[in-house]
Amino acid sequence: MDTRMKHLYQELIIDHNKNPRNFRVMEEFSHESVGNNPLCGDKMILYLKINDENIIEDISFIGDGCAISKASSSMMTTAIKGKSIAQARALFKDFHDMSTGKLDIAEHPHQLGKLAIFAGVRDLPARVKCATLAWHTLDAALKGEQEITTE
Amino acid sequence: MDTRMKHLYQELIIDHNKNPRNFRVMEEFSHESVGNNPLCGDKMILYLKINDENIIEDISFIGDGCAISKASSSMMTTAIKGKSIAQARALFKDFHDMSTGKLDIAEHPHQLGKLAIFAGVRDLPARVKCATLAWHTLDAALKGEQEITTE
Amino acid sequence: MFATQQDHHFDVASIRKDFPILARQIGDKPLVYLDNAASSQMPVQVMDAFAQYHSGYHSNVHRGVHTLSQEATDAFEKVRFKVQRFIGARSEREIVYTSGATDSINLIAQAYGRTFLEKGDEILISNMEHHANIVPWHMLAKEKNLVIRVIPITDEGTLDMDAFDRMLSKNTKVVAVNHVSNALGTINPIAEISRKAHAVGAITVIDGAQAVPHMNVNVSEADCDFYVFSAHKMMGPTGTGVLYGKIEHLEAMPPYRGGGDMILSVSFDTGITYNEVPQKFEAGTPGIAQVIMMGKAIDYMLDIGRDKIQLYENELLEYATNRMRQIDGIRIIGTAPQKASVLSFVLDGIHPHDIGTILDFHGVAVRSGHHCAQPVMERYGIPATTRASFAFYNTRDEVDALVKAIHEVKEVLG
Amino acid sequence: MFATQQDHHFDVASIRKDFPILARQIGDKPLVYLDNAASSQMPVQVMDAFAQYHSGYHSNVHRGVHTLSQEATDAFEKVRFKVQRFIGARSEREIVYTSGATDSINLIAQAYGRTFLEKGDEILISNMEHHANIVPWHMLAKEKNLVIRVIPITDEGTLDMDAFDRMLSKNTKVVAVNHVSNALGTINPIAEISRKAHAVGAITVIDGAQAVPHMNVNVSEADCDFYVFSAHKMMGPTGTGVLYGKIEHLEAMPPYRGGGDMILSVSFDTGITYNEVPQKFEAGTPGIAQVIMMGKAIDYMLDIGRDKIQLYENELLEYATNRMRQIDGIRIIGTAPQKASVLSFVLDGIHPHDIGTILDFHGVAVRSGHHCAQPVMERYGIPATTRASFAFYNTRDEVDALVKAIHEVKEVLG
Ligand SMILES: Cc1ncc(COP(=O)(O)O)c(C=O)c1O
Ligand SMILES: Cc1ncc(COP(=O)(O)O)c(C=O)c1O
Q1: How confident is the model at residue C1, as a pLDDT?
Q2: Residue D384: CATH number of its domain
Q3: Can chain A be said to touch chain B, i.e. do they have 3 or more Cβ pairs within 8 angstroms?
Q4: Which CATH class is domain B3-143?
């Protein structure tokens, strides 16, 4: 199999695509936002329950999307559940910088952990938006925005 | 001197340019028309006095233009003065066909006489209009049109 | 590797040699270019025309008496005659150069539509239009309070002609449909559409962007009022296209863009006089080299033979369709009996963008997305499709490479 | 033959080698190309970019996930950044690709003018505008009942700034002038014009078609609201150009052309959402190869050095002006103290078209006519001029050839 392909479609991504975690509607949420990627026709709804100490107590999402965007959404929810807003924002920044090529994770320290698996999209400009849609939607939700559109 | 140049700017043309014949306003005319070539900024007014037998008794013109258009106007007036409308129209056709390359005067009989001197414009598409402006204006005058514009 | 069987003396191997890009590698795989509906590739004959022009006789057109300007003008204007014959127009004055199909449709919407349509008038478009044949009408409709009505399509992807019949009325003023759908491949019956539109006094605007590269087109026989296409989908350059319009329409329309070449005279005292058709619509310095290359692209296609191209492509499409149908979980979107060049599909549970990316890893260039035809996606209830689109330089081996790569996609993500 | 003295290390001989067309013969004479204001010639470096693109990575931009589409998009978008720096814009989002200066001005007139101007508003243009900066305003003014007022010019051919001051008022909404006049060569004080226009609340539209090839341009320093130019006058391809607009204007403006790429989504149910600036203004497949070539043309000019180009051309213009002045019966039209590249003239009793034709017989390509600036002709009471216009590949020897040929004209027709 092509090495570029192996690099992008790793086991973990494929697993999260097939069995996305936190993939459900949330009835009682404190924040909600809709993310659109019209180029792909992708759409997700992200729900957050944030408590008074600014901790993300619960997070979930629903929607349609490619493997990259679904796996990215799923892994994002597992990564930030239980984190503070500040920590979530810091992760967003690292993730964004990694996928747009601004942060070289081999060279610089980062908090991404397993999320580093998405580094491969850096070389696929048309797919960066797939990996970052969930994160942009999170950012919008935290800012209180109802809907965002990326292209 | 360049042969193409000699071919176009012959003595006769230069003479008619410098001393255009029938170059005057006509007070009492039966037909009048204005010819414009906006590309060149050229403009001429043509006057005709046509009698009851359809003979062009008098013809004159005024206006500004390049050597080719001025000489062509001048030579046209001398060629058709005294001719019938039908003869003038026949000459127009021959002249037009010659200058647009439809009539090869070396091969085919024609009535052009000295006017054949303008055959050289055939190879200069941008100058064809200069040579034919007077003739188009004549044609318009005979049709009763007040003004024409060529480009 | 790229030989074909059954080619009716269609020597695709030697044709492929004219297209240097086809020898390219993507990673370690040979390029399999199946994105021709987005833009076709260019043969060296057309490329050479560019270098010849700029090394030999480039100059601005129309305005000069010097030799280069005459040569450039000559070459530029001769293409008008070529285009005329290529699409069966009655006069070369009916051929307007534009910067592409999109520009052409905007010209019609603005110069014709804004002038002749009035509040309440109806524009019929179809549910399978490219955005280029939707958005200009939408913008016009908003400005002038016009009504846009959408001709539905059947599950197969053909125009619902019964519905069309019912929608036509004395309010219908424009019927704007494509000749071939870029998302479905459907060939629409433009002669019938024009006949019916004319019967209620409407005009037709036919988007031929996907037709001209693949089949014989005769705008006079089909009796369309306007017909548009782009050079870059027919072996020519980007940023150049054609607007065909019946001469009586072009003459009645005001100009679209203002500038040099489209006027006869400008004076602050006496006003502005516009030039004749088609120059009236060609303001400013046109894409001179591009038009000349479009002429070469036409020559190139005519040299091969349009009938031969059509026959070869039809067989290729049939071969591809049959092979694809055998893939488990595939659904072909667009199964009209009359089709050209396009094979759109979805795979159960696999998103088109993943397909596109994985095919690319195998050297296979297809398009994944809505193909600028979102209403088609909405119609079929899908976010996007993957589209393989063929040109006459494609081969059965390339179809096989596509099919093989799709199997790999299923292995990874299925 | 084409060596220059005094060239400040400006190696024109080796520059000329980059332009294959300069080796051409016209009849039996070497081509002396002095029609650069109409369109400049193209160096091989730019031509090669075309062949490289189409042999290597042509594909439609923006919409594809496959490798070719990414490479093409990348190359296409990188030019935006080049253009931004080339003209000193603040952001690459302020750079809109168009099909030329004419297209750019029409875009402004339609998308800005039709939206923001109202009955009675005044548009100031100058008496030395190219038709491209007159006709679009005229068409708009007719439609919307606006008033066009014309800033007069002095006998030298400079803007009458006192008159301009007096004409400015709270009714002034747009001031549209060229940076350099194509008919006179005058360089206009665009920073001062913008400052004064802004003081009354008007915006400026600067036609930079003749400036960009010849001098440093900084739209941010000059604080113009819009700035337009064409690639084909700066060593690039025909049919491509740029609209610079301040981001706040571009964001406030509705789209101009509708089609693919300029929308985010199209639905017959939920409506149409437009894309962001600058894509909002770039409907349809753009001239991809042309934009990439425009980038190469910018590289080419920057490699030589714009200051050096300006210095060299100024000296050449001065040399030409001095030599021409010595010809009996000549009158130079346009004698502003600040000039670029252009030498327009008339000869006593000899029509410009005869001059043009006879110069062509000597291999000298100049333009004769109104140069799409008829109001300038009217202003000077002449039907036309002959215009020699220079690029950095021209030489003093070529000026000498021009002067010699003019003497021949006088011999024949004088
Ligand atoms: C000053 C000026 N403005 C505008 C234009 C129009 O440029 P284009 O024909 O490339 O649109 C020209 C060139 O002819 C020009 O010289
Ligand atoms: C059917 C159809 N119409 C119009 C267009 C627009 O063509 P262009 O982008 O060249 O203007 C396309 C191509 O994208 C198309 O496929």
Answers
A1: 41
A2: 3.90.1150.10
A3: no
A4: alpha beta
